[in-house]
Structures are given as C-alpha cells and as structure tokens.
Amino acid sequence: MTMMNDLSQAEIDALLAGAGGGDSSDNNSSGGGDAPAPEPEGEDYSGLLSDLEKDALGEIGNISMGSAATTLSTLLGHKVNITTPSVSVAPMNVIQQHYPLPYLVVEVAYTVGIDGNNVFAIQATDAAVIADLMMGGDGTHPDTELNEIHMSAVGEAMNQMMGAVATSLSTMFSKKIDISPPKVNLVDFGKEDFAMSDSTEPMVRASFRMEVDGLIDSEIMQILSIDVAKEMVEALMGGGEEESAPAPAAPAQQSAPPPQQPAPAAPAAPPPQQGYPPQGYAPPPPGYGYGGNSMQPNVVTNMPVSPAQFTPLSVEPVQINEANIGLILDVPLQVTVELGRTKKTIKEILDLAAGSIVELDKLAGEPVEIQVNGHFLAKGEVVVIDENFGVRITEIATPAERAAHLQ
Predict the structure, then answer these.
(1) What is the largest CA-CA distance in the chain?
(2) Closest CA to 89 of 98, 80, 79, 102
C-alpha cells in the first residue's frame, strides 16, 4: 500500500497498460500449449486425400469398428461404444509430438485382399483396464504395469476385434479380406520413435472415441499408409466403375462396316408372302414351318390322353422283420426331454445374467416332449426319483404326429 501511494496516477495507468499488454502476449505465447492440440495435418499434406476420400474412410471405420465394438462388448462383459472417426494426414513423427503418451501399439498385416498393414494405438492406461477385464477383474483398479500376461490378454482382444473388422471389410468390398495375428508392443510416443516405414512419410490417422461402460472414455487411433487408405476407398467406391469401364470400349473397337457393305441382318428372314425360302436361306429345324410366323411349332392333335391313376396308399402298419431287428438292438440313441422353447434377440441374449428368468412357450403342467436322436417320439410328465429328474411317458406319438414334427 505504501508503494502505491508513492506512484502517480499516470504511472499506475502505465503499469496497468503494460500489464495488460504483457498478459496478452503471455496468453498468445502460452495458448499453443494450453489450447487443444490441432489436427496433425499441414498444408503440405492437405492434397493427399480429398474430402470425399476422408468421408469414405470415416464410413469404413464407422462400420468396421461398430463390429469390433460388438465383439469387444462380448469379451469384456461391458457395453462398448466407438464413435465415428475424424480422419487426418500427417507423418508419424508429427503424430507422436501431438500424443506424447505411452501407447499399446497393435500392428496387423493384411494377408488377403489388401496389401499393407494396419496399426491401432490404445493408451496404456486404457489397455490396462481391458487386460484387467479380460482376466476376470472389474476394471476399477487395474495394474498400471503391463506385463506379458496383460499384453497377451489385450492382444487376444484385439485379435478378435480385428477379425470382426476383416469380416466387415469383406462384406463392404465384396471380396475376401484376411489378416495375420497381431503384434503387440508398448511404445512411449513421447520418448521412443515408432514408424511403420519412414517417420517423415505421411500417414492417415483415424481417431475414434471409445467408451467402455463408465470404465474408459478415451481415444484410440488407427494409422494407415496413404496407399492402403486409397486402396480401401477404391475398393468401396471405384470397384464397380473399373469393371464397367471396358464395356463401352468393345463397341468402339468394332467399328461400323464400310458404307459399301450392306447390313448382314436385313435379308436373313424371308418375306411373309413368299411361299419358298430365298436362295442361301437355311431351312428351319423339323417341326417348324414357313408362313406368317416361321418360329411357330407344329401342334400334334388327336393324341389319346388319359388321366394318371395311382394305387391307393395303404394305411396298414408296416410289417417288421423280427429276425433282423436284433442286429441293431444295442445301438445307443440320444434321448432328450424338451421343456419348451422361446426366441430372443441378440440384445436380449447379451443382457442375460445370473438370476435372469427365461419364459418358455409351454404352459405349466403341460406335457413335455420326448425326442430320440432329435425326432419327436412321445409325451410325458416330469417326476422326481431319488433327487433326480425323470419323465413318465403318458402318450406315444402316432406316425402322423411324428411326420408333422419332421416337417
């Protein structure tokens, strides 16, 4: 307070103005560090992929990673959501500068259908949660140190996910896509160099947001080479155009006949009024005649026709040869008692847990069906014999009932 009293108002105003200018310059200089990191894409790489190609890659990633999310949900026992990606282009060293964190890098090589590799990068902390869930934990207190067992568990999860991705790509591209087993490595992007080829070569980065049932809300990256990305886009958008391109070229190669040559199709058919074929005209096959319609077949008339007669089917029981039945009496058969059936959607099946009740289509007290080798044989009621379930047969199915169940 004493110092403020020694300063004049002009000096105070000058100090305030200087402080404001300093704050402004400080904010501008520090904004690059505090603000969100820009997309790792510069002007030098903006022309490598068009907006249409980026949209196509985003759609490919959206569909394929949707299948991967379903597979991961089944493996982890938790709902997994992976959003539509944002696609950008930058060298690997620039990508590492924007994401200086430890990542679990999963590298997959395409063996059939696509020539190249596919790299997925998951933050080490998220990989620890996935490993804990894969090993039977609840994911709330994962081991931060990823050992070989943890990395093997995450590798198996990624193997299943990439298998689902390959299946989705096969459906989208209408050709077989296959992959090799994944290679899993732990890389600190802030300290170690990781490059699929040259670290200065532009790469395509697709960034997904992954959420795992309140345990993970983070970002995963898919990294592709430009050639692989363009091959995927071409397979999705340009496959049909390449196949149809040679079609219009065929008529172009077969140029029209010279003007002095008459069209060959004009004198092929005889005039309707003519009663004989012209010279050089090939006669039609037997059974066809000349006239107004040269392709009209001759119709045979006055042919005796009688309705078909069949011997009535016998309803008598089939006679069994008792002499040969003994040869198969010791053949074991599988006897099954079916309490009932029901239909559920995949979502309802995945929601089943311990204690869930599945309602069947059979009423309480209604006879159960007894099947032998999967075929309906009889009806019965459930009983308990010495702490074991049993079935008392109440009715043997007739041959007509058995035939109805076979249909």
Answers:
(1) 136
(2) 98
CB 362 within 8 A of CB 379: no
Sign of CA dihedral 61, 98, 103, 189: positive
The torsion of the CA quartet 166, 167, 170, 176, rounded to 10 degrees, works out to 80
Structure tokens at 250: 């065929």
Are 43-239 and 334-340+360-407 in the same CATH fold?
Answer: no
Cα distances (Å, whole numbers) of residue 25 to 6, 13, 19: 28, 18, 10
Architecture in CATH for domain 43-239: 3-Layer(aba) Sandwich (3.40)
Integer Cα distance of 133 and 78 in angstroms: 9
* HEC per residue, 111-154: EECCCEEEEEEEEHHHHHHHHHHHCCCCCCCCCCCCCHHHHHHH
Q: What is the pLDDT of residues 160-199, one digit of tens each?
A: 888 888 888 888 888 888 888 888 888 888 777 776 656 6
- Helix-then-strand count for the chain, H and E: 12, 12
What CA–CA distance (Å, rounded) separates 263 from 130? 74
Enumerate the domain spans of the chain: 43-239, 334-340+360-407
241 vs 52, residue with greater confidence: 52
What is the CA 244 to chain-centroid distance, rounded? 27
Tell me: domain 334-340+360-407, CATH 2.30.330.10, correct?
yes
CA angle at residue 19 from 17 to 24, to 5 degrees?
95
